[in-house]
Specification:
The protein is built from 4 helices and 14 strands. It has 222 residues and is an alpha/beta fold. The protein has a domain of 143 residues: 24 nucleotide stem-loop, u2 snrnp hairpin iv. U2 a', Chain A (Alpha-Beta Horseshoe). It has a 6-stranded parallel sheet. A 5-stranded parallel sheet has the order 1-3-5-7-9, with no helix packed on it. Strands 12-13-14 form a 3-stranded antiparallel sheet, covered by helices on one side.
Amino acid sequence: MEKVRRYASKTSLAIVVLVTLELFILNPAVAVSDCNIVCEGSFVIDDIDTAADLEALSVCTTVTDDLSIEYSPLTSLEGLECLAHVGVRLDIKLNDSLTSIAGLESVEYVGGDLGTSVNRSLSSLAGLNNLESVGGNLVIWYSRNLCTNLAEALRDRLLDNGGIGGSIHISINKPGCQQLCEEVAAGHPVIVLQNIGLSWYLVWHYAVVVGYDLHEGTVIFH
């Protein structure tokens, strides 16, 4: 009986070792620390198995080709905190629930075009605070809740660092925010009507603006 127990124990240990080795072969990230993987190729995060898409990129510091985030149900880009470099194009588009691109704070450069377009709930670009350069075009287009001056602040910061290699296209975003900032800076109370729901299910709410941070790309409500 003792020999049978020992044999069973050794067999279980062998199975565990075999499974662990198989996981290592199939997924090298299991055996390494976070944020040190170069992910070869192009990747898409969309509405099909979104959690798995994020998980696949969660330890990538570099995506060598394109990264597209499109048609997803995400409200932010948390889970991509390791990402520092995109080799070619970073395209964020058609994400109706996306209110923030928080999660991209580690991104330092995009080798090709950087685009954010038709993200109807997007109101902040704060996730790109540490972006230093864009090798191609900068496109910030048709985000109706995103103040135009926040997009322009990102543009100006990149230009000051010599960090845009192509053309610049900023249009059809939220107008009038410059006046809002001027009123707040003058100490005047500003009340805004904010959609705290979704683009297809509007929930309107009044809020008092008490501050703003153009570098962070945020407006501060009471």
